[in-house]
User: Fold these one by one.
Assistant:
Number 1:
Amino acid sequence: MALFTDGPPSCIEDLSAQDSQLLDIANVEGIDVTQKLRLAHDELGIQIESLLSANGAGQTLWMQRRPNLAVVAVTPPLKVWHTYRTLEMFYADAYHCQLNDRYAGRRDQFHEVAKWAYDKLLQIGLGIVTLPVAKAATPTATTVPGGPLTNGTYYVTIAWVNRLGEQGAAAAPVDITTAGNTILVQPGQSPVNATGWNVFLGTDPGALVQQNPTPIGIAQTWLQFAPPALGGNKPGLGQEPNYLQPLPRLLQRG
């Protein structure tokens, strides 16, 4: 699971799965769906911070510091809440463009299911990661002379790991074409809590495989010195929560 701070939990495909007319309406009404995903993400972040603040209001100075947004994992209830809230915001925008009652009906429908998802999140609790590792940025991949790679196009991504061996979300892959050479991968700036990184490579961006047997040091690069491994670990979505944080039942506006 990704961290909440890695970016919006849902994507356009998640919205379209709930509403098959979304992209057609977005095109007709000139609505930026990606922007709506970001706006809903920002709004949910503020609400989650409020929940965590209320949850820790009674703590004393010697008690454990309360969780913050940086340690929140995207669990299924949180992702569903984000999906429905984004759709509600989308149809609210569409309604204000045309004052179309059909859009108002969809807005109200998604408002109700967003409230339902929020309530389920309160019942289950927030997923908390104790040693969070942020999603990796797309690495730098360059060709260097020599090497065992067959000529062609390859895709490369990386993911950071912490001292417990937990792996953060993988970066968007970068593509690179070889011709009688091999690939050098540089990870970029390491995030907080990272102690190493894994590299994933393959000829299909949807079927990348880990190439390093053990985590690579944060200050090291990776040279693809052997033909790509075809079986092994795949890039993950991120860390699983270490525990669920109970939440106070605050009344949501609206």
Number 2:
Amino acid sequence: MPNRLTILVTALFASSVLSTAMWGQSQPAQPNGSSMPGMNMPEHDVSNMKDMPGMNKDKDKDADKDSDSDAGAHAMHSMEGHMNMGPHMKMTALRQPKPGDAGRAHQIVEGARKASEKYTDYHTALTDGFEIFHPEVRQKMYHFTNRSYAREAFVRFNPEHPTSLLYEKHGEDYKLIGVMYTAPKRLTEDQLDERVPLSVAQWHEHVNFCAPPQGQRKEMLNPHPQFGLRGSITTQEACDAAGGTFRPVIFNWMVHVYPFEKDQASIWSVERQHGDAD
């Protein structure tokens, strides 16, 4: 995995990408856009983050020529390092099991296994429309995202259409380890429970994000930054005082499933999906 310095360097550009992403969420759908009428594109379609406005090299003269890769890499490492996020991370609470929860969870695992087992060869995933998020950046876990499935997840849950396939890199090959499902950030925990029972799984989302003001992005290079997904700022008031732009929630709800594991604790492992990126 990249060392701490690499992760800190990539932080320089993260706020630009994420601020642009959040700006896009507040805009109406364009006639030729990918959003459904009255509905924004799923916030966690991370596969196209590097293509967003604001990451254009000709427009951002201060950005390094590799800024799009660096920004995307920081976002991914931030999402991998969930356990370090503290107040920037929100998880659903585990509930008491209800009749039928175990059966529903089993069906989801079967659907995830059925959907993903044919992608043991990652070339097949690429052929079927999955795109690798920043393959040039070394990561603990690589997301192969299907934009069509991401859009579908915004309106309905289909266990056989995961937003992303999860792989580990082994030499020049990729080993399939699981899938990721997403859900709109507007959903309540009761609605998430209808998709995946909360007595079995814990969804998570990224919260309390303060983007630094223009000219202060280098502050995110600090070992203990104020801004970003690992920043000390966690409230609207503190962000306003620092001149930043606050967003209570960024990206969608997400949950990982490891359907090839043998026991329930491993299949729905929170620790595995929240492993440190350091």
